[in-house]
Q: What sequence folds into this?
């Protein structure tokens, strides 16, 4: 059994494992998704600096090149990297759908400023930058709060996570461009220090996720506010169009031009806002999830993190949702006007077709009458020529037999000739037309 195990290990090392298992090409990627978001253990006192940058697709290559300055070669499509910049100074890089988070972990005695220059060199626009001071004990808390310079009127403080952890922040951007947070964690026995370090790391990661997703969600608010007047203009145009559709003096082309202008405006607004507002809805759900995971406990005399989020974040999300709903309603109303105009055009075409059919019916009836008249004239003409020929014959007979009444015979043959001509034309017409 031992030799078989060593043989399997040898084969796995040479790549035969994949051939034996016939792995799905995405197996390792989807399994790796469960292990991407890891932070190193955090023990107080420590300082954590994080930047969340919105990175455009064309900037991803520059991001990878900058990360390669300190990280080993990453596989194609890597979304997580971690390592050491200096003794006591670790980093974690995480790639999200439209942003990247870069976090520095400085233990007590390590200077995070050594990594700030590298941190600032990443491409992309900074959406959130925070500095977290992790402390333990009253003395460290007092020193950290004094150095943070929080605005007393906006100070938020509450318990988070395990019993004994407490958060302070005013959620304002300082003069250096960073937001400040102070987190107090209880002292743990030596045998539980390692476990507490991982628990604190998960707690702080959840706290940062909450703030990062909150800022990403709020990117939709300025967009909704900026495009709200355009929706007002579209609504006014639809109100005017409602009256124009019923006017008989306006042509269909003029109405179609107005409907097309409104539809193009709605399409333009949708193209410029739909992705951002959809992202806002998705990030808002993540914010609610992270807020629930933090198990916020209010502290008397201070607004809690939940109060701060619900009071300032939820109205912004609702504004974005209201904009999205209004855009959808106006689009539906525009589609209704398009359908109404199409019905109007189709009705007008049907009326025109009816008039055309009546005109064709009258023309066909007139042609039939003219044809019948022509047929009557044709019978008269043919009968006249036939009687002329018969007259020549009768006159010849009269020359031979002077007592033969040629004129009387010619007169007696008139109805016979006319009848024969009419019957002949009628039979010819029947043969030509067949059953029609």
A:
């Amino acid at each position: 059994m031992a030799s078989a195990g060593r043989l399997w290990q040898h084969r796995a090392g040479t790549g035969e494992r994949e051939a034996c298992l016939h792995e799905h090409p995405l197996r390792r990627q989807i399994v790796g998704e469960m292990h991407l978001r890891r932070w190193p253990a955090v023990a107080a006192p420590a300082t954590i600096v994080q930047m969340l940058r919105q990175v455009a697709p064309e900037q991803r290559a520059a991001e990878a090149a900058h990360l390669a300055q300190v990280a080993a070669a990453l596989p194609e499509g890597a979304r997580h990297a971690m390592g050491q910049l200096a003794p006591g100074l670790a980093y974690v890089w995480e790639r999200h759908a439209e942003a990247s988070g870069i976090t520095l972990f400085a233990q007590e005695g390590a200077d995070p400023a050594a990594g700030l220059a590298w941190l600032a060199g990443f491409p992309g626009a900074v959406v959130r930058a925070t500095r977290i001071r992790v402390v333990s004990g009253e003395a460290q808390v007092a020193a950290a709060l004094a150095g943070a310079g929080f605005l007393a009127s906006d100070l938020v403080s509450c318990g988070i996570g395990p019993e004994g952890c407490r958060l302070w922040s005013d959620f304002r951007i300082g003069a250096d461009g960073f937001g400040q947070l102070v987190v107090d964690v209880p002292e743990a026995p030596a045998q539980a220090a390692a476990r507490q370090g991982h628990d604190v790391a998960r707690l702080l990661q959840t706290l940062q996720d909450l703030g990062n997703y909150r800022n990403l969600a709020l990117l939709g608010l300025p967009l909704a506010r900026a495009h709200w007047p355009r929706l007002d203009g579209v609504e006014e145009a639809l109100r005017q169009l409602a009256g124009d559709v019923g006017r008989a003096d306006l042509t269909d082309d003029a109405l179609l031009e107005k409907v097309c202008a409104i539809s193009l405006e709605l399409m333009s607004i949708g193209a410029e806002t739909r992705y951002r507002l959809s992202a806002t809805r998705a990030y808002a759900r993540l914010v609610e999830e992270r807020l629930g995971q933090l198990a916020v406990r209010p502290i008397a005399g201070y607004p809690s993190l939940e109060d701060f989020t619900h009071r300032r974040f939820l109205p912004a999300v609702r504004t974005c949702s209201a904009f999205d709903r209004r855009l959808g309603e106006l689009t539906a109303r525009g589609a209704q006007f398009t359908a109404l105009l199409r019905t109007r055009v189709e009705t007008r075409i049907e009326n025109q077709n009816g008039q055309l059919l009546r005109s064709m019916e009258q023309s066909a009836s007139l042609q039939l009458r003219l044809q019948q008249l022509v047929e009557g004239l044709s019978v008269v003409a043919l009968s006249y020529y036939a009687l002329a020929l018969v007259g020549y014959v009768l006159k010849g007979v009269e020359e031979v037999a002077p007592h033969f009444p040629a004129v009387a015979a010619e007169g007696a043959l008139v109805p016979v000739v006319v009848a024969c001509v009419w019957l002949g034309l009628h039979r010819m017409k029947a043969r030509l037309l067949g059953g029609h």
User: Anything to note?
Assistant: The two ends are 97 Å apart (CA to CA). The beta strands are 46-54, 80-86, 89-95, 99-107, 125-135, 156-159, 166-169, 179-184, 297-298. Residues 1-12 have pLDDT under 50 and may be disordered.
